[in-house]
Structures are given as C-alpha cells and as structure tokens.
C-alpha cells in the first residue's frame, strides 16, 4: 500500500513544483516571484520528508529543518530589500 | 496493526500532497498578486503538516520511541508563514501591484509613498468609496448670513 502511495505523492508534489515554477517564470511583478520562491521552499521540505519515508531513514529531518529556516530568512531578506531598499539598516 | 498504520500513513501522505497541489494551482491560476499570496501560504503549510504527521506516525510505528522531534518542522512553518505572508503583503502594497478588476476597495498606502498617491484615480474607480462632501448651496446662489 505504501509502495503505491509514495510514488503517487511524489508525482503530485512534482506537479506542484512545476506549477510554482510556471509562476516563478511568468510572474509579472517582483513580489509574485518571491511568493513563488517561498512556495518552492515549502514544497522542497514536503518532498524531502516524503523521500525520507521512502528511504526509511531519519537523517533527512535535519535537512528539511535547515531548508525551512533558510527559506524563511531568505524570504524576509528579499521582502525587506523590496520595502526599504536595504536589508540591514545601520544608520 | 501494521496494515492500519500503513493505511493512516498513506491517507495522510495523499492529503498533504493534495493540499500542496491545491496551493500550487492557486499560485499559478489566480488573477491577482494578493489572491496569489492568499493561496499557497495557507494550504502548503497545511500540506507540509500532513506529510510530516505521516512521517511521525511511520517512524514511531517502526521504532521503539515516538519520533516527535519532526514536529519541529510544521511548528516552525506555522510560526513563520504568517510573518512572511504579512511582509510580502506589505511589499506588494508598497510596490502598488495591479489589482484584479473585481477587487472592491483599495489597500491603504502608508509610508514614504503615501504622498505620491493618485487620489483622483482611486475616486474615479470607486466613486462611492469616497466620503461625500455635502454641498452647502446646490443652486449656486450665494450663502446668506443668518
């Protein structure tokens, strides 16, 4: 049962990746592309967790957590740059 | 017992990946930046929650201990997804991205770009959203002092 559900889940996640990539390429404005990048991050986390289930190994948990943290920091930095023209305002 | 656990894991995997697909379809198909922001920020977070729950159940059933530390991922996502969505909505408002024609009302414009705001365009697009100033003399006759 799991041998069917894991490839189906991987295929659905790949389709979600493709649709998000369409928005990343097409997206008319810059915030659209940032939303697409953020969604790609979250999709990558889901894909890595499903891949860890299929390999029966728990080492992919740290990878997923690192991608979550780095994706959040990247999104916040990009939106901060878009809003203020600077990321770390020292003066 | 093993079959029941496998069935639960399969259902959670399919639910999670379908939620992620719904978010991606919304990101690809919706007509407006704010609608596109609304779509994936909620449903993909829920999809990752379902998939990680499937992983927790699977690894807890196959080992002697409950591997609850994987729940850190959806906890972190539930914390950070509203923050990034809020910052993205602020950035989109400040960039004045085009809105869909069916959108009623306009987002408030604050900050440095507020003085560059074109109020005439807003008033023409939405005549009844502006406060009506009562005309003291509609006939054109000069007002008389009491």
From TrEMBL, chain A:
Membrane topology note: Multi-pass membrane protein
Alphabetical list of PANTHER family matching this protein: NA(+)/H(+) ANTIPORTER SUBUNIT F1, NA(+)_H(+) ANTIPORTER SUBUNIT F
Protein family (similarity comment): Belongs to the CPA3 antiporters (TC 2.A.63) subunit F family.
Compartment annotation: Cell membrane
CC terms in the record's Gene Ontology section: plasma membrane
Protein species of origin: Paraburkholderia tropica
InterPro entries to which the protein is assigned, alphabetical: MrpF/PhaF-like
Spans traversing the lipid bilayer: 6-25, 34-53, 59-78
Keyword list, A-Z: Antiport, Cell membrane, Ion transport, Membrane, Transmembrane, Transmembrane helix, Transport
One example GO MF annotation: sodium:proton antiporter activity
Name of this chain's protein: Multisubunit potassium/proton antiporter PhaF subunit
Short name of any one Pfam family annotated for the protein: MrpF_PhaF
Main location: membrane
Keyword Cytoplasm: no
Keyword check for Lyase: no
């Amino acid at each position: 049962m799991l041998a069917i559900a894991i490839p189906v889940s991987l295929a659905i996640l790949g389709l979600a990746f493709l649709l998000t990539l369409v928005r990343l390429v097409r997206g008319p404005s810059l915030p659209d592309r940032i939303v697409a990048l953020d969604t790609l991050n979250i999709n990558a986390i889901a894909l890595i967790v499903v891949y860890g289930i299929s390999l029966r190994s728990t080492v992919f948990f740290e990878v997923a957590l690192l991608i979550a943290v780095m994706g959040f920091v990247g999104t916040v930095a990009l939106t901060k740059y878009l809003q203020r023209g600077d990321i770390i305002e020292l003066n | 017992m093993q079959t029941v656990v496998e069935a639960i894991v399969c259902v959670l995997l399919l639910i999670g990946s379908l939620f992620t697909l719904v978010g991606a379809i919304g990101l690809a198909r919706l007509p407006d930046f704010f609608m596109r922001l609304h779509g994936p920020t909620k449903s993909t977070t829920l999809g990752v929650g379902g998939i990680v729950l499937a992983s927790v159940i699977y690894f807890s059933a196959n080992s002697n201990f409950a591997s609850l530390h994987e729940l850190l991922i959806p906890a972190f996502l539930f914390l950070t997804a509203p923050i990034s969505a809020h910052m993205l909505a602020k950035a989109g408002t400040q960039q004045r991205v085009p809105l869909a024609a069916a959108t009623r009302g306009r987002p408030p414009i604050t900050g440095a770009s507020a003085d560059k705001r074109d109020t005439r365009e807003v008033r023409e697009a939405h005549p009844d959203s502006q406060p009506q100033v009562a005309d003291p003399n509609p006939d054109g006759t000069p007002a008389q002092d009491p």
